[in-house]
Design a protein that fits this description.
The chain has 325 residues and is of the alpha/beta class. It has helices spanning 3-6, 37-50, 67-78, 107-115, 136-139, 154-157, 162-169, 186-191, 194-204, 214-221, 271-277, 292-304, 308-324; strands at residues 9-15, 26-32, 54-60, 82-87, 121-125, 129-131, 148-150, 181-185, 226-228, 235-236, 249-251.
């Protein structure tokens, strides 16, 4: 690991199961900032509800009060080890960020470099994911000569201009994957010098990758090195919030997110809400709307629920904010 990257880790903290053999664990990695600890906690809980012998790694800038204690309670409940790396995010702030995303999306480059001395593989999971089944087959999968296992990105597949998009970012691989869930061979990551190459690409021409940011870069670097996984390992959420029985990982990759008050689910209890109720975040309130577009989502939610009084209230709030801005 380069000195620059090494200096981005300000502190390491280990909780639980110290001294146990590392060979007995599968390594699952999350990278977030402090605003994402509610979904992080629910995601970690969901993984541990369905899987044993897991080591959880979290790369984070800092915790809001009480959030680290909830996470520690979670891993202690399931008797699994947790390692927390505190990241100085300032080194990533020059890279492109779109919408509500944060620089924490780039922490995964740091995670792979840090963990390659400890792990042969790591499963990277976005915090907006809910696990619904065993990951044993995924962890034990033979990747052959491939460096990464991932699922094709549905948004890319539906893009009629995808060939032009690939040309613009310099992608020439046999497909385009969603980077929200990736099984990584860390030796091949090191051999291909992924972290240094990725950061150089982002530093040299950040505007080139402004749409999907690190996901674009990873697709360029891993061209023709991807083991293509079935969609059950990265199933995008749908409005019905119902999924095939063999779905292992649900990815709430769209907007709004299920921890937002304005999220709509046709299910009586969404997979996210179901896990949240069983987690140490059960008492944490859903996040309310604060932006005009979120007022609009609230109005749409109540329209779908048939509550036209509240639909009208939120529609008026939305229009008022649009006029004000």
């Amino acid at each position: 690991m380069s000195i620059i990257l090494e200096n981005m880790i300000s502190c390491e903290e280990q909780i639980g199961c110290k001294g146990e053999s590392r060979d007995n664990h599968y390594d699952v990695v999350f990278t977030v900032d402090k605003s994402f600890t509610l979904p992080l906690g629910v995601a970690v809980t969901s993984v541990l509800m369905h899987n044993e012998n897991i080591h959880i790694y979290v790369f984070i800038d800092e915790f809001n009060p009480g959030e680290k204690e909830r996470l520690i309670s979670t891993v202690e409940k399931f008797s699994v080890p947790l390692t927390i790396y505190y990241v100085d995010a300032s080194g990533f702030k020059k890279f492109p960020i779109r919408g509500d995303w944060s620089v924490a999306v780039y922490f995964r480059f740091l995670a792979a470099d840090v963990l390659m001395a400890r792990c042969s593989r790591m499963l990277y999971v976005d915090a907006d994911v809910i696990c619904q089944g065993s990951l044993d087959d995924l962890f034990q999968m033979d990747l052959g000569e491939k460096a990464i296992a991932a699922v094709p990105d549905p948004t890319y597949l539906q893009n009629k201009d995808r060939d032009e998009y690939s040309r613009r970012i310099g992608h020439s691989g046999d497909g385009y994957f969603n980077a929200g869930i990736m099984l990584l061979d860390l030796q091949k990551w090191q051999d291909m010098n992924i972290t240094e190459n990725a950061m150089k690409m982002l530093d040299d021409d950040p505007e080139k990758y402004v749409h999907a940011q690190d996901q674009d870069v990873l697709n360029v670097l891993f061209a023709n090195k991807v083991y293509w996984l079935p969609v059950k390992y990265n199933t995008r959420n749908n409005p019905a919030d119902t999924y095939p029985a063999d779905t292992a990982l649900i990815h709430y990759s769209g907007s709004p997110k299920p921890w937002k008050e304005f999220y709509y689910s046709a299910a009586s209890c969404s997979p996210f809400a179901e896990v949240k109720e069983q987690s140490f975040w059960t008492d944490e309130q859903m996040q309310p709307p604060v932006k005009p577009i979120e007022y609009r989502f609230m109005s749409r939610k109540y329209a779908r629920l048939g509550n036209y009084g509240k639909w009208l209230i939120w529609q008026i709030k939305y229009i008022a904010q649009k006029i004000k801005n």
